[in-house]
Specification:
Helix content is 11%, strand content 36%. It has 257 residues and is mostly beta strands. This is V8-like Glu-specific endopeptidase.
Length: 257
């Protein structure tokens, strides 16, 4: 298990915040082919930012966020972005645990692997955020199973201003990979799915009448020269269930409330 400490440089992080807020000035949203998320979901999803860019993440503890490994594996400063009533602010990330079976080479080679990381914030997240429950399912989801993806990414590929707003879209499982991932495709013929900046976002399902976290968005693909709208991949929570509590323990934190 890779555990590292992340630091935040105030000047570079301030620049990153300004860029992200400007990108979201036109509230076109995120997730290709999706719709604005239900207000209740905003308590569970958060943006992971650095001077290099941004990703999505899901709150799984008072100071824990689950995101994609490729979002936080490079040296540098990381934080979570809080869009509050008094304007945007950041909470520093000071610990990162990346799943040991994932590497940057896997990402570059498009090799399916558990592309997940658990990050710890220096202080508890603001009260507007609450940890979401994890799915009780084990292993990989069945072909045909439906999941709702949620993230802050682009709703229009290549348009930075279309990101920064939480949106959702429902997809179905087409393929299962033995290395913890599943490939999802649109329910209909129109492009739909994750896009840039949605990495690390949530794949949600319902268990006992409640929304639970079933996966972490890993990558997206499009038709032809496109990168979004044709397929999305998730790392299944059920396939990393043994690793998650160990990662939290290594970070000196606890999953859940």
């Amino acid at each position: 298990m890779t555990v590292k400490r992340a630091t935040v440089n105030c000047a570079t992080m301030t620049f990153a915040i300004a860029a992200l807020v400007f990108a979201a000035a036109t509230p076109a949203g995120a997730i290709v082919g999706g719709a604005p998320a239900a207000p209740a979901l905003k308590a569970h999803l958060i943006e992971v930012v650095s001077p290099n860019g941004a990703c999505s993440g899901t709150v799984v503890g008072r100071n824990l966020v689950l995101t994609a490994g490729h979002c936080v594996d490079r040296p540098g400063s990381y934080a979570v972005l809080v869009r509050g009533a008094n304007g945007p602010s950041v909470v520093e990330i000071d610990g990162v645990a990346i799943h040991p079976a994932w590497t940057r080479a896997h990402d570059q080679q498009k090799k399916p692997s558990p592309d997940v990381a658990l990050v710890r914030t220096r202080s508890p997240l603001p009260a507007q955020f609450r940890p979401i429950a994890l799915s009780a399912a084990t292993g990989l989801p069945a072909v045909g199973a439906q999941f709702t993806l949620a993230g802050f990414g682009l709703s229009e590929e290549g348009s930075p201003r279309s990101g920064g707003v939480l949106r959702t879209v429902t997809l179905k499982v087409l393929l299962r990979y033995v290395t913890a991932q599943a490939k999802l495709v649109p329910l209909g013929g129109a492009p739909a799915g994750a896009c840039e900046l949605d990495s690390g976002g949530a794949a949600l399902t319902s268990e006992n009448g409640a929304s639970v976290l079933a996966g972490v968005i890993a990558w997206s693909a499009g038709d032809g020269t496109k990168n979004c709208g044709a397929a999305s991949a998730i790392t299944a929570v059920g396939a990393i269930a043994d690793w998650l509590p160990l990662a939290a323990q290594k970070l000196g934190a606890r999953l859940g409330e």
